Inverse folding.
């Protein structure tokens, strides 16, 4: 892996700029020492990297001043890291920190070492739960090979399981299949609709230009308005991802056009061994022409050409029967449906725990995180006069 000069200089910096972890001279711990650009270079060294561990995606919602990074290195080489969102009550500085799809602990080109995960979990506990007195909430990535073992290590590290996330299922396509194998894997109905789409003269392009992003945003915005879906357009997130990530990690826009007009599209990110379908959109004509099937078929085959990519993560189904039918048929016999990333927490401060539970009401953090309202937190705190002062 070729490293940028800025990242290489940071990795090679003297140990006097790092703190030793557990008093072990070969393990160093760095807190909040990386710029967004350096962080992007760093996570590119990990096979389990995801967009949820980028400044671009997290800062778009929370701003950089709410983000915190922690990196563990052995003899100067990064072995694990995590990007966390800090959500605290002013003055008290109590609340929780949110770690989504992490930590990262599997450097590329190396065998997975469970000790690296154990070490970073201990470091996170010491820094954020013990020293900063916050509740740490972690949502694990849905990797079919490592999810269960990660959950076991979380439990062994005294992290407690909270709940599952928003969607009960996560759909993963095995893109290592060749064309014939992938076709046989599809459900019968999905294969039928795919063949129907082949009758039309579609043009499918894969690009990362500003023009392609804008074309996708227009299509996506129209779909959200037409279907009356919640949420906002991902324009700023995509612009930040393109501007912040190294060239080989930038999101790709896949556009399907008919008669010169884009009618279906998707944004795909490839940071580690799992590619992610970040956004997708179609218009009414695309549905009539079964264009979504041709689009996803092209994406599956395109990813299948990449040596390091094993899975395409299609996300959940949002409890939508039509989406469930589409994704289940697409992953087919060879794909997998895995549990939505599990939530775990650890805490040492009762004030932070009570604030956190007041906000989340015992529900999955992924359900409430978008509605985090600091004014409401202040009101809740005032209502709980019996809370003891922070220790």
């Amino acid at each position: 892996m070729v490293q940028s000069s800025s990242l290489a200089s940071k990795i090679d910096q003297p140990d006097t700029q790092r703190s030793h972890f557990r008093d072990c001279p070969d393990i160093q711990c760095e807190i909040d020492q990386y710029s967004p650009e350096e962080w992007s270079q760093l996570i590119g060294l990990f096979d389990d990297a995801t967009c949820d561990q980028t400044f671009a995606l997290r800062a778009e919602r929370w701003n950089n001043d709410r983000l915190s990074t922690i990196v563990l290195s052995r003899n100067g080489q990064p072995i694990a890291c995590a990007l966390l969102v800090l959500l605290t009550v002013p003055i008290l500085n109590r609340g929780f920190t949110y770690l989504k799809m992490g930590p990262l602990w599997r450097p590329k080109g190396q065998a997975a070492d469970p000790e690296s995960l154990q070490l970073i979990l201990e470091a996170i506990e010491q820094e954020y739960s013990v020293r900063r007195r916050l509740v740490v909430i972690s949502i694990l990535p849905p990797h079919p090979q490592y999810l269960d073992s990660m959950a076991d290590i979380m439990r062994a590290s005294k992290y407690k399981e909270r709940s599952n996330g928003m969607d009960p299922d996560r759909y993963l396509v095995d893109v290592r299949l060749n064309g014939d194998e992938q076709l046989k894997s599809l459900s019968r109905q999905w294969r039928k609709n795919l063949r129907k789409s082949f009758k039309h003269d579609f043009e499918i392009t894969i690009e990362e230009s500003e023009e392609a992003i804008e074309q996708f945003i227009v299509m996506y915005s129209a779909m959200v308005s037409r279907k009356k879906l919640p949420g906002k357009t991902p324009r700023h997130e995509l612009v930040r991802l393109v501007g912040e990530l190294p060239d080989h990690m930038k999101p790709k826009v896949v556009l399907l056009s008919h008669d010169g007009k884009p009618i279906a599209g998707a944004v795909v990110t490839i940071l580690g061994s799992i590619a992610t379908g970040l956004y997708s959109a179609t218009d009414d004509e695309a549905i009539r022409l079964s264009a979504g099937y041709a689009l996803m078929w092209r994406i599956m085959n395109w990813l299948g050409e990449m040596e390091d990519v094993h899975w395409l993560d299609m996300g959940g189904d949002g409890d939508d029967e039509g989406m469930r039918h589409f994704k289940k048929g697409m992953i087919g016999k060879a794909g997998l449906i895995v549990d939505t990333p599990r939530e775990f927490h650890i805490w040492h401060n009762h004030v932070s725990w009570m604030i956190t539970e007041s906000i989340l009401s015992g529900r999955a953090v992924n359900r409430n995180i978008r509605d985090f309202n600091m004014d409401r937190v202040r009101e809740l705190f005032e209502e709980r006069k019996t809370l003891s002062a922070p220790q």
